[in-house]
Fold these 3 entries.
Entry 1:
Amino acid sequence: MSRILVIEDDPITAEEITAELGNHGHECVWIADGAEALERATRERFDAITLDRMLPGLDGLALVSRLRERKIGVPVLMISALSDVDERIAGLRAGGDDYLVKPFAPGEMATRVDVLLRRANAHADDATLTIGALEIDLRRRIVCVDGEAVRLLHIEYRLLEFLARNVGQAMSRSIIFEQVWGYHFDPGANLINVHIARLRKKLDRPGRVSVISTVKGEGYRLDAV
């Protein structure tokens, strides 16, 4: 169980966040005031933070900046009604790890928190991911299927590694764009479809279902096959 600090001044939104994260097995602490939240985040241990952009006492940008100044590296998901690209950039530059625009789907919010938690807990320097017949050497960036090396382009490897770190879970297009390409918006291109098709061609084997599934209305999921 992970301990999540929910910093949100709107009680309805806070209840929605804590309920969804609770459904994902996390323990939540809710604080509505920015200054109080900074004090708690400095004094106590949390595994992740969801942070509203507009807060009484201390706004979200100032809060995350002060956390980083104090060398507190807890992952922060910023949540805001401010959707302009400049606002998103400001939130990420201040020290946020991800940015979600209101209104949001609770399931996507919880998935983003789970992604941040897995990223924080990953030890890529000495790890190997084994998923069915697929093996990924994270240190050397070598991919094998049935023990046979598969040559991937850099972006194909990044896409595969991201899906593999979230094996069994459908990842939305928006999350894939942000985590793999670094875009905090959908560029409207066919990028994901093209690279998923290339990965399938390189990884799939005759007589087996595809390693990567398309989940209608949700995104893409990597499975052990």
Note: The mean pLDDT is 89.
Entry 2:
Amino acid sequence: MTAGGSAGGSAGVSAQELPPGAWPWLHDVARWLGTWIFFPFFRVRVHHADRLTSSGPVVLVANHSSYVDGPVLFGLFRRRMVFLVKHEMFTGPVGWGLVRIGQLGVKRGTPDRRPLMAAVGVLKAGGMIGVFPEGTRGAGDVEAAQHGAAWLARSAGATIVPVVCRGTRRPAGRGRRFRPPVDVLVGEPITISSGGGRAGLATATETIRAEMAGMVRELDEIRSTT
């Protein structure tokens, strides 16, 4: 993993950085596996990894173009990360594993504050929450996820760090690729001001959206020259 230095600092040791029911040792093993399991399939290049602090509450907001994005990011940064994952994934052995490594299930289109409050608890303990605004179908769900990221940051006094990932999705009409380059760009941290009600959340959401749109263009330019 290159371009921008090592991805973050050393992992935290506090079990409070994970939701209740998680096994910290299993989370760390899964994250360790994630550091190399994709090596045979992708050439991952990280840009500006130093923008992500090694400690303190962070809401990481990432784009989502394929199912691989989450696992790649999970193993990429050297600190514990709890993703908000669609509830449908929490069935059978996969669901059991997701709970044990500390991921949180979110029901689409259904008000459920439990996972959000669990996420706030993780942030207040100094942990990191990962949100994929594009990970749900429908503009309403995407908007809700973006508002959720801003709400989490404001509620827990956390910093938002935008991240964009390009290269995991196979272009339409293209055959299987041999170790294609995957680029991850870490953006400048965004501070959400306290208060402001819904209008403040809407402003913060638009700031996140505009920042990530600009980062996608920046990363595409980087990829076109490398």
Note: The chain is about 40% helix and 15% strand.
Entry 3:
Amino acid sequence: MTTTVLVTGASGQLGRELTRQFAGLGVVAADRQQLDVADRDAVLAAITSLRPGLIVHAGAWTAVDACEAQPDRAMRVNALGTRHVADAARQVGAHVTYVSTDYVFDGTKASAYNEWDPTGPVSVYGRSKLAGELELDPGSAIVRTSWVFGREGANFVKTVLRVAAAPGELRMVDDQRGCPTSAADLAAVIRTLAVGRYPGTFHVTNQGVTTWWQLARDVLALAGDDPERVVPISSDELDRPAPRPANSVLDNAALRLSGIPLPPDHHEPLERLVKELTS
């Protein structure tokens, strides 16, 4: 018997990779126009009609600074929307895998965050995603990730290449640490967790810690450009509306302890992507 897989947020950079990953399993890919998760009636109607065995809930409002200015919208989409998905999944017996974020932490820990560390988001976006986590049943899976990049959609790697096309320096933050994550690698692990109906929280990132400044230097070097063009600045100098965690490093402890292979070092998919985007 074939299990139908519903992917929400299917038009995003991760959603498109998830759709590819589940292509052989009867995937139904729904973007915001096809399924607004903030609309309870629409979610209940869609899921009870489709009756998927697996739901990968990647749909979210991820504009971090915009969330800071519109907290009600952030909570309606990221928290209440997840409540609607969880409610409908409960009615049809579907397993839910929810995509969450490093922003659920305050970033003050000296070492990497594992899945059992206390949360403490400092931004509206982080609070809304944590609220979404709290809406899920115990049998669901929560996948926290960070610094996602890929061939689809907008992301840091594409931004660096676009800005570097013009002459001059690139000013990048050097006081935030994290683990860049390939959307394709992330989607592959999510497939493993979803098909295996794993419960609980998992941190899923590529390996290797860096800063935005160093990551930009790596992108330029891989593109054959001069990494010395990248100038380090502080988060305070950037002066964004929403605070960012200084430490976004996620230890993939639950994957490791479960015997699930970890995604490779981030330099591997980064090199492939830059070559693809610049060829």
Note: The mean pLDDT is 97.
